[in-house]
Design goal:
By secondary structure, this protein is α/β, with parallel strands linked by helices. Helix content is 35%, strand content 29%. Strands 6-7-8-3-9-10 form a 6-stranded mixed beta sheet, with helices on both faces. The relative contact order is 0.14. The structure holds adenosine-5'-triphosphate and magnesium ion. Magnesium ion (MG) binds next to helix 1.
Amino acid sequence: MWASGLRKRYRRRQAVDDVTFTVARGEVVGLLGPNGAGKTTVIKMLLGLVRPDAGEIMLLGRHGTDPASRARIGYLPELFRYQPWLTADEVLRLHTRLAGAAVPAAEQRACLGLVGLADRAGDRVGGFSKGMQQRLGLAVALVARPELVVLDEPTSALDPIGRADVRDLLLSLRERQVAVLLNSHLIGEVERVCDRVVILDHGRVAASGTLAELLGQRELRLRLEGVTPEAEALLDGAARDGDAFVLPIRDPDDVPEIVAGLVKLGVRVHAVEPGRITLEERLLEVIRAGEDR
Ligand SMILES: Nc1ncnc2c1ncn2[C@@H]1O[C@H](COP(=O)(O)OP(=O)(O)OP(=O)(O)O)[C@@H](O)[C@H]1O
Ligand SMILES: [Mg+2]
């Protein structure tokens, strides 16, 4: 799918302001950003639930308004409630019918199994816990064999096992060449499964790219003894973290030379630990840079 130049204004608030991004088949893309950044509004525009003020949307090779593409999209909304008097089985059957998909009952059951609800298939969803409802929501998003899956915070209510299950689910979707757009505040999860990330802030794309592009900055933690003024010069640009020097580096191949240089100057090198900033650190950096502007 791709979206280009999306805009949405609510009264005086520009919720989404010129957002452009793509999700290819077989790719998991993470949509990140602070509360109110516009993530859910973008997702709702993709799905035709909110009308954009401007911009273009293509879904699975068709124009965004084409109902034929909608049937091939799986969607887990941010806030949802199913009819409390229906059983999990019945909810899935209803949504399969609504999608116009011919999914055999056994496959629908298997889908409940995938989200860990196999033994609750016949229970009414009114009695489901929050996490169980979210699991059912995931099953609904996946049951009609979608080619594009849009998940608006699928794991916010899930226990650690459930989160790990969702991670495996996403990886298997990617393997089957499904396109996945994942909005989540659980950055560790996004970092683990996403190929690319789009960071929204104040309705705009504040940063985007592959994880390697976004987290490209590498660093070296050095524990040293006997640092002379000449060695200090060699460590120019390093920050101190306790008794460690943290040196940003451009290329891991520079490491032997840095260490050799230090040793030559009589410094005793106790530890050399390569590191890279986390997605969380990068996200905070991007958002704080936006605040300063
Ligand atoms: N129906 C609406 N009417 C008026 N304003 C809205 C409406 N929906 C969203 N907004 C506003 O648009 C902005 C973006 O909201 P949105 O729900 O897209 O944020 P979000 O990034 O999904 O945040 P969160 O992380 O809290 O889910 C917010 O300022 C919000 O108040
Ligand atoms: Mg939201």
